[in-house]
Amino acid sequence: MSVVIAIDAGTTGVRAFALREDGTAGGFSYREFPQHYPRPGWVEHDPLDIWEATRTTLAELVAALDEPIAAVGITDQRETLVAWDRRTGQPRHRAIVWQDRRTADRCQALRDAGEEAAIRARTGLVLDPYFTATKAEWLLTEGGVEADAALALGTIDAWILWNLTGGPDGGVLATEPSNASRTMLYDLRTRAWSPELLDLFGVPAAALPEVRPSSGRFGTTVAGTGLPAGLPVSGIAGDQQAALFGQACLEPGMTKNTYGTGSFVLMNVGPTCPEPQEGLLTTVAWTLADGTTHYALEGSIFVTGAAVQWLRDGLEVITESAEVNALAASVPDSGGCVVVPAFTGLGSPWWDPYARGFVGGITRGTTRAHLARAVLESMALQTCDVVASMSEASGHPIAALRADGGAAASDLLMQIQADLLDVPVSRPVINETTALGAAYLAGLAEGVWGSPDDIQANWHLDATFAPAGDPDALQALRDQWHRAVDRSRGWARSEG
Questions:
Q1: Are 214 and 413 in contact (CB under 8 A)?
Q2: Are 385 and 240 in contact (CB under 8 A)?
Q3: pLDDT tens by residue, 339-369
Q4: Peptide bond just before 349 cis, omega within 30 deg
């Protein structure tokens, strides 16, 4: 039996994952890489750290495998931008991470100039520093990056693909629609880079990757990458669209949430691109080799799992992230404590880059357990805000939610989520569905799986959490949450 390897290049680390033909896991390796915060609201990565973590995890995984490798897929943290030199392979600046807020004022200026409606119509996105376009503009105007013939500008998938397939010696510079649709430079309807938006942001088309289908052969690996030479790299998708595919949400209306560094609720809306929806994003879900394209509505939450890291690294309330569950479960509720983790602004449905973190409701009886519980509740409450907005926009309240990502392993969080949403929440056996989706897209292109129906058959349920909370108490919690959100909004602007 052969395996497909998926490279999952996330925000805090890289995971290499092997998936067997029958949908079972064949092994994995993981490495974190450093985070850089040069100024408040700025978040950067060293692209060489990401590539080194990729090579290391691939080499460790391959060394442990007994099965032949049929294909390689890539999934990534999407809006993060890398600028590098195609002659040398060296980055020209640290990568600007999707969480980065340095272009908030530029987005506001564009909004004031009346540009948002046209951008929304073309891209399905809102004017926010979350997306890649203003990052690219900043690098070219303020970051010291020169727009010469050797410049490459791409999201993390393009950086990894280029290195896997040769780097300066013939590396393939390409991406696919799910990543391209997050750059604010890509037209959803023409499914191509928008000349108007490239002109608006001053981004040279020659520096951008070619956009190819999400499932299809991009190139083959070379030696020195941690993988054997000659393997086909045949599937790429942004992490959240990959998770939608890996969760087998293949029919319109099916919805998933990935609880990672941030959380991302996606609803498959089928092959027709919808009009922009208030508070939500429209994105390409995937394009298969035959041209079949599905779109999705998305609600993007910037900080969920990262709030647990804040408890661990910033406050030192816990020493390991896994401790948060037992600590939060040691109290029946948060004791009135509420945490709004707007550390880098608020995403859907508020879209406020000036929001900042808020902790309220503290009394003399508040303990670190109550704070931990409030952080878990904040993950579920932010998801509720997104789902409410999505249900209103689509006209169809969701009947169930499929959950994945690292924090979905918490039974307590899943139960809180089911109670607050008042719908069943299901968790699959393989929780790393971003990697699953990338593997499936690659395997489909190489004939490991014959059709998307095989992927649906491979989805296996681990647990379902049914709603069982007290309605009055839950409503009080939601009301308290919204009071706290109101206080967090606009904070950085008023301070400025």
A1: no
A2: no
A3: 999 998 999 999 898 999 999 999 999 999 9
A4: yes
